[in-house]
Write a structure and sequence with these properties.
By secondary structure, this protein is α/β, with parallel strands linked by helices. The protein has 2 domains: 2-124, Response regulator (Rossmann fold, 3-Layer(aba) Sandwich), CATH 3.40.50.2300; 140-178, Homeodomain-like (Arc Repressor Mutant, subunit A, Orthogonal Bundle). 46% of the residues lie in helices and 16% in strands. It contains 8 helices and 7 strands; from the N terminus they run E-H-E-H-E-E-E-H-E-H-E-H-H-H-H. It has helices at residues 21-33, 44-53, 71-80, 95-104, 116-124, 140-154, 159-166, 170-178, and strands at residues 13-17, 37-41, 58-62, 64-65, 68-69, 85-90, 108-111. Helix 4 (95-104) links the parallel strand 6 and strand 7 (108-111). The two termini are 31 Å apart. InterPro entries: ActR_PrrA_rreg (IPR047772), Bact_response_regulator (IPR050595), CheY-like_superfamily (IPR011006), Sig_transdc_resp-reg_receiver (IPR001789). Keywords: Activator, DNA-binding, Phosphoprotein, Transcription, Transcription regulation, Two-component regulatory system.
């Protein structure tokens, strides 16, 4: 198996925090195959508890969890184990949240869907090492959609306020928000 060729080091502990149970199970299994000793949590509370009791060498934390923000788990990890390598995952890839994640101490930031190899590469990348450019960069339509989503979230999901800030008709915005994201 080529996937087990990664040099994890002595401490192979990995904390996975995500509220999508199916994704969490698949990722845990894939990371165990790559040599990690995995612990999982489905919430901010669970992630913070594990981070406090047994701070891992590595962590993959979803940004949006049902009970709060995954960055709360990252803060605990940074307090308890400053050398922990943390990758923040999210289905809502936005520059503002990426900057916040890195400022708080995340090693990297990946948009879902990210596969196990991308996650391992992010966890094990050297300090200051730049990731390779994406194989398939986002289309202009996708970048526009991401921007609209970011502004929508910053306006606390208020359609009228978002439309005003984007200088767009409210109904046009509602149609855009009702559609799936472009590729």
């Amino acid at each position: 198996m080529a996937d087990t060729a990664f040099d994890i080091g002595q401490d192979k502990s990995l904390l996975l925090v995500d509220d999508d149970e199916a994704f969490l199970r698949r990722l845990a299994k894939a990371m165990e195959k790559r040599g990690f000793e995995v612990e999982t949590a489905g919430s901010v509370v669970g992630g913070r508890a594990i981070a406090s009791a047994r701070p891992p060498a590595f962590a993959v934390v979803d940004l949006r969890l049902e009970d709060g923000n995954g960055l709360d788990v990252v803060e605990v990890l940074r307090e308890r184990r400053p050398d922990c390598r943390v990758v923040v995952l999210t289905g809502y890839g936005a520059i503002a949240t990426a900057v916040a994640a890195v400022k708080i101490g995340a090693t990297d930031y990946l948009s879902k869907p990210a596969d196990a190899t991308d996650i391992v590469n992010a966890l094990l990348s050297g300090e200051g090492e730049l990731p390779p450019p994406p194989e398939n960069p986002m289309s202009a339509d996708r970048v526009r959609w991401e921007h609209i989503q970011r502004v929508y979230e910053l306006c606390d999901r208020n359609v009228s306020e978002t439309a005003r800030r984007l200088n767009m008709h409210r109904r046009t915005l509602q149609r855009i928000l009702a559609k799936r994201s472009p590729r």
